Structure formats: structure tokens, C-alpha cells
């Protein structure tokens, strides 16, 4: 038996934040991890995917600038990009992250953690089974895994998921990407710019990035097709088969069209990694996202000792939101009086052009019955964008509550617009009135000057 104040199952960013914050404030903390300390984001998600996108971003940015474009005489070096990816993921060695836990006197248990009762966890690892007891809380931070849709033959063709794509050691000659969400579009562009000559995206919905503003997906689709990435929307995948053990994947779409590829990447969404957690012992569903209240406490569990943070609670499948939830849960465990979690979620798709959004879309605001006004402005009309080169595209949009005169949502499309997003997040979370926001003067010539033009359209 091992006893601690707090037991955290899952050592990704969300779990690390809970563990670190509790340990830094004097609690005894144990962490259970079945794979690598650092989790999906560090080794198969955010870090490697953005690292693989970066070479193409730099070349494209230089190619837009007269005087610099002439110096771009070659193409991206995929082998060098993969080597830098290996460095950024520490070669899938988590010893550095383990040292971080040790520096905070956090005990690490390698193995599969499973709830067995109130504040009780059983860990099964290579060295046998151990039983842990938490004096205060157990925190679930197990994340999600890639979902595979029930398409005829799809599992049999051994498709790539996000892990295969971000850990790839070669560039296929033909890549088919199923799914037009963030992972699908980012990996499609990354491999195309690393040298894959034929990339096709198949999205069953009517547009790319279906959860964002319609113009965002359309502008991204237009940019992709202009660059030579084929985009098929509104037609789902019907079947797949592979010719031989390592042969070509042949797929059929719902309209009968056939597409062949060397590799097929399935990026249609995520499902919670909760199946083996023992939630059924507590009367909770074992194959669903863990429902939580605004303080990350699992609903339906008496005593308020069980928490779920990060992707496994389904509130916002983003690393930064998981880290925020982890800090919030830690403060609650520490007995601090903290407000409930905000539902304002910033999100960035790191394609070129980038798609950045926070808060509500226009449709979401209307569905909520809010009085809505929208304003838009083109990125290419900004001097700060024009100095970056030619062919700058993208649109910025604010969704405004016309009665309270505050921003409900913001979307920015264009090269390098991710740095605009935090200002919008602060404005929305802080409910800053537009007439006050007017006095936040953007520098000239920067892309952030778009704020001035958007507010001018509000009559300010």
C-alpha cells in the first residue's frame, strides 16, 4: 500500500499541472503513467506537429517577400525536419520530464491505473500490482485517443493516426487525409510542404474546420487548392482496402469516386481514454467523457474527491485548456476559493493561413438567443500585413453583443495571426466594453492594427 494526499492518473500537461501545483504547495503527490511522462502533446501532438509545419511556414513566408523570394532556390529537407522533430520530442525519451517530477518530490508509478473504490487506485505495471490510497483527491488526466470511424475495411488497411503522422520517418508519395479538422489540415499541409506531391483531404462535412466560422474553412480550402492540395468536401469515405501487406491503399467515396494512396491518415476526431479506468466501480460510464462541474469535480461521485481534467472530460480538447483546468482543480484541492472554469476557449490551427478563434461563432451566438452584430476586415488591407509580402489573404471577424457592447467571439484568418488571439481572449473573458477597448491603441504598422479597423466599423 502507498498513501498520498493526491493521486493523478495521467502525466500529460493537464496531469502535470495538477501534480506540480499541489506539490509546490506542500501536498504529497503520486502520479500514475502508462506511457511517457509529458503525454500526447509532448510526443505525438502539439510539439512534433508544429515542428514539422515550421519549415514550410518559413519557406512560404520568405516566398511572399520580393527580394527574399529570389533566395529560396530549394525545397524543404524532410530528413532534417524529422531530425529536428526527434530533438524536440527528446527521441521519445521522457527522462527530462521524469526529472521534473522528481525535483518536486512527486512519486511516479509506471503502469495502468484503475479506480477500485473511494480514493483508491490500483496500478498494474511490469513490476506487479500496487495499491494506492489518496487522502484528499484522485485526479483523472488520461486524455483521448484517435477515433476510427466504422468504414468498411478501414481498420484492416492499417491507417495512420496522429501518432503515426507526427512520428513518421519518410514522406509518402501520395497521402490521403480523412478528416478536415485541425489535425487533418495541419498534417496535410506539413507533408505537402515536406515533399509529398499528391495530398488529398476528404471531409464528409460541408467544409473544412466545420466548427469554426464558415469563411475560415473556405479561405483555408482555397489556399490549399491553390497550393496543389486537393480538397473534397461533403462526401464521406465508404470503404478502404490495401493491395498486399505494404501496397497501395484504395478507397471508395460515398459518391463512387476512387482514390489511391500510399498512406491514409485518419483524423476524424478523438474518443476518451477512460475505458479501463474502473469508472464502473463508481457507477459512472466507462466509455464516455467524464462529466465534471465548473471546478473539475466528477459529477455523480459523492464526497467531491474525484476530479477529471484535460481531454478526458470533453470540455475542450486543447492542451492549454487542460493545463488551465489542472491549475483550477489543484486550487480547489488546496482549499482555495476559486471561481468556476470559464467557457471561453481560444484555439489555433497552425496552417498557412492560420485560423485562430476564441469564444462564440456568429451561429453559436444566434443559437444562444443573443443580440448579435458582426464586423469584418480583410488581412490583405492592413499595411502591417502588406509589408510581409504579396498575396496576403485572410479575414478578421468580431461577434458582438449589440446590447451589452462587448465581444462574444473573434476569428482571425491569415499568416501569423495567432498573436492576435490573446488580446481577443482578454477582451472576452474580461468583458471589456468596446468604448473602453477603443483606447487600447495598436502599434503601426502591425497586423494588430486590425483591431482599430474592426472597432471603427462599430462606430467608435
From TrEMBL:
Designated name of the protein: Dihydrolipoyl dehydrogenase
Enzyme Commission number(s) from the entry: 1.8.1.4
Residue span(s) of domain Pyridine nucleotide-disulphide oxidoreductase dimerisation: 345-452
Cysteines engaged in disulfide bonds, as pairs: 41-46
Binding site for FAD: 50, 113, 311
InterPro entries for this protein: FAD/NAD-bd_sf, FAD/NAD-binding_dom, FAD/NAD-linked_Rdtase_dimer_sf, Pyr_nuc-diS_OxRdtase, Pyr_nucl-diS_OxRdtase_dimer
Binding annotation for NAD(+): 179-186, 203, 269
GO molecular function: dihydrolipoyl dehydrogenase (NADH) activity; flavin adenine dinucleotide binding; NAD(P)H dehydrogenase (quinone) activity
Family stated for the protein in its record: Belongs to the class-I pyridine nucleotide-disulfide oxidoreductase family.
Domain of life according to the entry: Bacteria
Cofactor(s) recorded in Swiss-Prot or TrEMBL: FAD
Cofactor note: Binds 1 FAD per subunit.
Annotated FAD/NAD(P)-binding domain residues: 5-325
Entry-linked Pfam families: Pyr_redox_2, Pyr_redox_dim
Keyword vocabulary terms for this entry: FAD, Flavoprotein, NAD, Nucleotide-binding, Oxidoreductase
